[in-house]
Design goal:
Blueprint (H helix, E strand, L loop, with lengths): L2 H7 L2 H10 L9 H12 L4 H8 L2 H12 L5 E2 H10 L12 H10 L4 E2 L8 E3 L2 H17 L10 E3 L4 H15 L2 E2 L8 H10 L24 H12 L3 E4 L2 E4 L1 H9 L5 H12 L6 H11 L4 E2 H8 L11 H15 L3 E5 L5 E5 L1 H11 L2
C-alpha cells in the first residue's frame, strides 16, 4: 500500500504524532485534515532529499535494509534485528535503543502497522515512499562517484563463463577418478587439473582464515568454491565416501549439454553470501545503479564502504573487492578496466542490469 492508504487506516493518535513531528498546521481533531496536511508535507519535491541528507549513518543503514529486504512486512523482533545490524561499532554509550529508532521511523510516517487482524502486529514501509527513497539515494550516490574520462584501453569481462565452467567441471568428474581425503576435499593434483581446464584460472586456496562464504569455501578458491557448491546444491555431484561422483541428475544434465541460466548462479551466490554480508542485495543494486557508465572503483568503494559491515577478519575493503566486485565479474554482471596509470574502473554489463531488474521483481 501507498502512504495515503496507510494514513487512512492509522488511528488519530498516530496521525497526530506524525503531524506534530512535521509541525503541520491543521486541526488535530479532524482525521481528514491530518491526512491531507501530512500528505501535502511529505509530498513536497524536496522532502525526501532533505531527510536523506540529514540522516545519520545508522538511520541510513536501517532504511537501506528496509528498502531491500524481500519481506514486505516485519515483526517487531525482525525490525529490532535490522536496527541492531545497522550498528557497526559500540563506541557510543548514550545511543538510542533499536526500539527508539523504530519509534522515530513510525513518528515520521515511514513505518506503519498492518491493516488486518492478522497483520496488526506487523510493520511495513509505504510502497511509494520506498520508491522515492531509492530515487533520492541513487541520486546522492551517483553524485559522489567519479566517472571515467574515457573508456579504459583494456578491460576484463566474463560473459557466460561460469555456466560454461560448470559443464567443464561436471565433465571432468564424469571422465576421471576423483578421490577425496578424510575431510571430503579433492587432492591438489585433481584440483590443479580442474582449475587449468576452466576458462578462468585461479590459484589453489591458501592456508589460514577461510569460512562463511559457502560449504566448501574453506577448501577451494573463491570462484571454483561457488561452482562446486552450486553443483552440490543442485545434486549434480555427490561426495560418496572417499570418492567424488556425478549423480543421476548430474549425468542427465551433462548429457543434455545445457548451460545453466546465469540468473540462477547469481541467485545462488546471493543466498550463499548473505550470511556474512546480510545487505548484499542492496550493495549489488547500488553498484549496478552507480556504474551504468565507467566509474572509478576507488570512488565507488568510498561511496558504499559505510554500508559494508566487517565479517571477522574480512574488512570492508576485502569484502567489497573479493567477495562482491570480483564475484560480480565472475558472474558476468560487471566488467573491470584499467588505464595506463593503473587506475581501475568498473561498468555494469547488460546482463548486470537485467539481473538486478529480475532480482527486484516481487
Amino acid at each position: 500500500m501507498n502512504l495515503a492508504d496507510m494514513l487512512s487506516f492509522a488511528d488519530i493518535g498516530q496521525l497526530s504524532r506524525i503531524a506534530d513531528h512535521y509541525r503541520c498546521e491543521c486541526s488535530g481533531h479532524s482525521k481528514h485534515e491530518l491526512i491531507q496536511s501530512i500528505l501535502q508535507t511529505v509530498g513536497r519535491r524536496d522532502f525526501i532529499d532533505r531527510h536523506v541528507s540529514a540522516m545519520s549513518m545508522e538511520d541510513l543503514r536501517f532504511l537501506n535494509s528496509l528498502l531491500f529486504d524481500g519481506r514486505r512486512q516485519f515483526s517487531l523482533e525482525e525490525l529490532v534485528a535490522c536496527a541492531q545490524a545497522s550498528r557497526f561499532t559500540q563506541d557510543a554509550k548514550d545511543r538510542e535503543s533499536p526500539r527508539e529508532m523504530i519509534a522515530r521511523f513510525r513518528q515520521r510516517g515511514w513505518l506503519f502497522n498492518g491493516t488486518t487482524h492478522q497483520t496488526r502486529y506487523l510493520f511495513e514501509v509505504p510502497e511509494d515512499l520506498k520508491r522515492r527513497f531509492r530515487e533520492a539515494l541513487e541520486a546522492r550516490f551517483k553524485s559522489e562517484v567519479a566517472s571515467a574520462p574515457a573508456e579504459p584501453p583494456v578491460y576484463r569481462e566474463e560473459p557466460d563463463m561460469l555456466a560454461a565452467d560448470l559443464l567443464v567441471f561436471l565433465r571432468y568428474v564424469s571422465h576421471h577418478d576423483v578421490p577425496l581425503n578424510n575431510e571430503g576435499v579433492m587432492y591438489r593434483r585433481n584440483q590443479l587439473q580442474i582449475l587449468e581446464s576452466l576458462h578462468v584460472s585461479e590459484a589453489l586456496a591458501g592456508k589460514g582464515w577461510r569460512f562463511g562464504y559457502g560449504r566448501r569455501f574453506k577448501d577451494y578458491p573463491n570462484r571454483f568454491a561457488l561452482l562446486y557448491d552450486y553443483a552440490y546444491h543442485c545434486r549434480f555431484i555427490q561426495e560418496n565416501g572417499s570418492q567424488l561422483e556425478l549423480t543421476e541428475t548430474g549425468n542427465s544434465y551433462l548429457a543434455e549439454g545445457k548451460k545453466e541460466p546465469a540468473i540462477q548462479l547469481v541467485r545462488f551466490w546471493l543466498r550463499l553470501y548473505k550470511g556474512p554480508i546480510p545487505n548484499l542485495l542492496s550493495l549489488v543494486y547500488w553498484i549496478e545503479r552507480c556504474s551504468k557508465q565507467w566509474v572509478t572503483v576507488s570512488s565507488l568503494y568510498s561511496r558504499i564502504e559505510s554500508l559494508i559491515k566487517p565479517f571477522y577478519y574480512d574488512a570492508p575493503a576485502s569484502i567489497f573487492e573479493e567477495r562482491i566486485l570480483i564475484m560480480m565479474l565472475h558472474l558476468g554482471m560487471v566488467r573491470i578496466g584499467e588505464n595506463e596509470q593503473r587506475e581501475r574502473y568498473v561498468q555494469a554489463t547488460p546482463f548486470g542490469h537485467e539481473a538486478v531488474a529480475q532480482l527486484q521483481e516481487k
